[in-house]
Design goal:
Length: 233
């Protein structure tokens, strides 16, 4: 299956120039070939190429599948971005492949990065969606202060992963299937004691993700994978 991304779908329309060039030059497709397109909102469109060039590829929709492979849960990971942006880009790519609904970036007391460029991250998400045949485009939110985020979250199951010595339960033991999850992942210097206390005050549960001390981006991917595995058992 050759999957393309187009957020605005009509019965007959043209792919954008980047996708058209990929069709023509890389895949060497031609008129009459069948491709699949997603709008990033869960719909999969089986389409026929009517006309193809490097700048415009016109297609006609033959069949539509809504809620294609929709997951039975909703996952939101809020993470303090690492100083090395490539590690965050890797996290975004891999969690898109596994399955995630929303990514938020936290500005914490120990944060080393205080600016994030969501435009590039959305490009990485689009590529990961097409590679892994996902039809849902995760929402990427701008940087937000930790305190503001904590006070404005109403997910059903709320977790904070931190490295302080305290009573923490392994995430897999707490997961309720088919739920709405939010998981907080701290910066390389971890959440501050004050931040942890604030999260617990707002009913976040302290969790462990591994017996090992994980990097920020690794912890986020492990959390995403645990949620996926538990919901598919």
């Amino acid at each position: 299956m050759k999957l393309f991304y187009e957020p605005e779908i009509l019965q007959k329309f043209s792919l954008n120039e980047e996708e058209s060039r990929h069709c023509k030059k890389v895949l060497r497709l031609k008129e009459g070939d069948i491709i699949y397109i997603t709008d990033g909102k869960g719909s999969l469109f089986k389409s026929e190429i009517l006309e193809i060039s490097e700048k415009k590829t016109y297609v006609n929709i033959l069949e539509t599948k809504n809620n294609f492979e929709k997951r039975p849960y909703n996952l939101h990971i809020a993470i303090a971005p690492t100083k090395n942006i490539e590690r965050i880009e890797w996290f975004v790519e891999k969690t898109t492949e596994i399955g995630i609904d929303k990514i938020s970036f936290l500005l914490c007391e120990n944060s080393e990065r205080k600016l994030i460029k969501t435009e590039r991250l959305n490009k990485i998400i689009e590529a990961a969606m097409k590679q892994s045949y996902k039809t849902y485009h995760p929402l990427v939110s701008e940087m937000i202060k930790f305190e503001d985020f904590i006070k404005n979250n109403s997910s059903q199951q709320k977790f904070i992963a931190h490295c302080e010595d305290s009573n923490k339960e392994y995430l897999a033991n707490l997961i309720q299937k088919k739920s709405d999850y939010i998981i907080l992942i701290g910066p390389e210097g971890d959440f501050s004691t004050k931040e942890i206390a604030l999260a617990l005050e707002y009913n976040f549960l302290a969790i462990s993700l591994s017996n090992s001390r994980l990097r920020t981006e690794t912890a986020a991917i492990v959390a995403c994978d645990i949620i996926s595995i538990i919901n598919n058992l």
